[in-house]
Amino acid sequence: MWPGFICCLFAGLALATLPGSENVEYTYTVRGRTFASLHEVSDSYSGILYKAILRIQPKSDNKWIGQIRDPKYSQVHSMLSEGWHTHIPDGEVSWKPIEFSLKPFEVILSNGVITDLVIDQEVSNWESNMIKGIMSQFQLDLKGSRRIDSEMGSSETGIPSVFKTMEETVTGNTETLYEINELPEYLLQSEEYDYLKDRQGRVMEVVKHKNFSNYVELPSYAFGFGDLEYEIPASNKMGAFFVRSSFTRAILSGNLDKNTVHNSYTVNKIVSSPTLTDKKKGMVVSTMNVTLESFGAPKDTIPEVQNPLHVGNLVYSYERPYARSSQVHKKSPYQHRQQFDIDLERRLRASNMGKDKTLTKDKEMRKRLRRSIEQFGGSMMEEGDLSQSEENYQNRKPELNQAPESPLLPYTMAYKGVSIKKGVDVVKTVQKIAMEIGDDLQNPPKVADENTLNKFTILTSLIRVMSEEELTQAAVRLYTQSVGDAKSFAWQAFRDAVAESGTGPALLTIQNWLLTKKISSSEASQIIYAMWQSTRQPTEDYMRSSFEFIKKPEILREWPLNSTAVLSYTDLVRRVYVNKRNSEKEFPVRSFGHFRTEKGKNFVAEEVIPYLSQKLQEAISDADTYQIHTYIRAIGNIGHPLIFRAFEPYLEGKKQASQFQRLLMIMSMDKVSDLLSAGFFNHRKWIPEALSYTTAA
């Protein structure tokens, strides 16, 4: 099953700048395709073709009126002998209309750069994003007004030939490398450039390469990449199994101030290993080809936007999957920049490895970027506000009993921009799939033939869009105390899928099952471990609810649940609040903002560590060897220097402990040792502070 990044459909594409004269209309044909394939294994491709007509009527140098007409798409699933770029005649596919409102929109520009879109408030958010994808073709910074490199090469004609900018398109606000060249006259005589015969002015070729590793905004959904050392999820490269690139070539005529695009072509490609062990790669490729068909006096005037809403820059806006409607919503450009600063600092340290001259140059580049941001967009945050790093394009963090608004996933936004729950009875569907799995498991040899594992994956994905109330309803329908029959297997499949879903409603549901004895202690140990390993949105409410759960008497007196719960939870605490790098890459911070908050870090220092220290002291007083070992390991799992406070009295002989217990305390410092050696903590700050603690926790 392909991951969520397939949803990255409309790439940051081609470009154009139009003359500011009124009473002129430019008409473009828009054609694109998005295909997925295991291209190193087979010539089989699946995806869509899409096409439309784009009308643009410039009102001034800083304002255009646009309208998309006759948008259509066609699904494709066939063998393409020449790969993803194989020509597919219109007559060989079945075109269907895309349900666009066809309402006009306004484009606001500054110095030739698109800074805002104005869209009718009745337009759906998914349509707004498609408009952004198409209008990203016209994002052009020919003069390098937002450039971030100190030097800008120029050709003999005075055209700035090579430079870097920070550029906003639908795929994000990223560093973009520009290469601009004037095409020689002899080259224009070839058949390839017949469409330029009626041009005015010189002809320029613009080539752009996006650098997704350098960004201010990077809409994406990523989970489970905590082991990546330096790479950032959704960037150019992630380990040896994910590569992302974007290339654009556009042909323009005119000059730097007044120019018109005649043809543009973009390829946005993602190459990935379907699994971590696969040597053969798969690919998702999205292309767009925009061609100027005509320009001249318009047959009719595109009307002004009714009920206008300034939606902000061209960067993709996440859906509101559980809202009553999928109407467009406002997004202010450049509202926050902190995550860019944090990620850039880390990349500089990783890439330069002590090369002071290069580091100084890159820091100067960052300063120029900040000045560019301050010049062109929105309100900026103070330097000291790095702890409040939620990006303006992100979704709000979920309530504990409600399903998270996870963007770019099929079941949360692929049903016309809203959750699949708008068109499907999710409780009934979950019950049906669980029962099918139960039937399959009664005949194990046929599991592969019945695609049982795929059914379980679908079941887990559906559970991720369910609230606590919906999970409770499904549990009532599926719960059984019988053993060995289809219904018991269905219940087990549902139970395990809830644990794998990793949501707040799943946490509350499993807690209820444990307290009401719907699952045994031995079952619960495995379920609890799987649940906290699969956690996707560890909000402050989620972490506190989990903490209160492991303190309950019903949990503390059940073995092995009492040990599994505290060990699994403290491991999660480290991954969320202590290990900064893991927290940024393991959880979908580009979708919801950071989960490693100041409030959360204080919670660990002021409540979690003192509680565990107290439980350790009680276990030693009771001579409960098993619990002593459990709480020593649990404290060590947290990996924060403040755990020295818990161990210091025993290691220095101020409190009684056996030699083996002291040895186990030393061994349990492996996590904090790893994080200290990796530079996650300031030795001068934390070691003295931790060791100066003299009062029993």
From TrEMBL:
Residues 20-674 form the Vitellogenin domain. It holds the Pfam family Vitellogenin_N. Residues 1-16 form the signal peptide. InterPro entries: Lipid_transp_b-sht_shell, Lipovitellin_superhlx_dom, Vitellinogen_b-sht_N, Vitellogenin/Apolipophorin, Vitellogenin_N. The keyword Hydrolase does not apply. The keyword Glycoprotein applies. Keywords: Disulfide bond, Glycoprotein, Signal, Storage protein. One of its GO terms (molecular function) is lipid transporter activity. This is Vitellogenin domain-containing protein. It comes from Callosobruchus maculatus (Southern cowpea weevil).
